[in-house]
Amino acid sequence: MYVIGMAGGSGSGKTTLVNRILRKLPRESVILLPQDAYYRDNSYMPMEERHKQNYDHPDSIEWSLFVKHVRELKAGNTIECPTYDYLTCSRMKAVVPIQPAQLLIVEGILIYTCPQLCREIDLKIFRDVPGDYRLSRIIQRDIESRGRTPKQVIDRFFETVRPMHEEFIERSKEAADILISGGEVDEKAVDFIVGGILHIIEGKDSIT
User: Fold this and answer.
1) Model confidence, pTM
2) What would the pLDDT profile of 152-167 be if each residue is shown by its tens digit?
3) Quick check: is 18 in a domain?
């Protein structure tokens, strides 16, 4: 199994890029493991306390389970990936069975801050996007899918997202093999990435 990491700051468009890559790869050959599924379960906290937690700090992720699952997949075993509810800030009871495949994509803002996980990743990609662009994407995303008001999103950005980006995520890009800069990634860039992936995992030079 070949493992690719896709990291970048919140709102950098890494998930969008991953989805565009997935659409161009043979679906049976690739699986995705998102960091967001491994947020620690805060269901024991009162709701008000859950919303005060810093979800942009590495301590918010259950790295031991994340790394264990990556290793299990590389060993050829099926895992039960947890699911996370952003509205309640807690894990859901449902799990998603994931079977091994030829290619594993690991995606998340903090994945390169965990040395044990980094050692399991063969190719590390980082979306390097300016903060003002990321903020506009965060506002749209958090209002539409996470039930937050514009004020809540902006307050959170300046209180936790930006400081944590500067302290942890910006530094972690030093671990990356490839930096993809700019606000948008055009189709030619996506095709170039996909072509490289196929060449690595299947020995192919063209997209199928």
Assistant:
1) 0.86
2) 878 888 888 888 988 9
3) yes
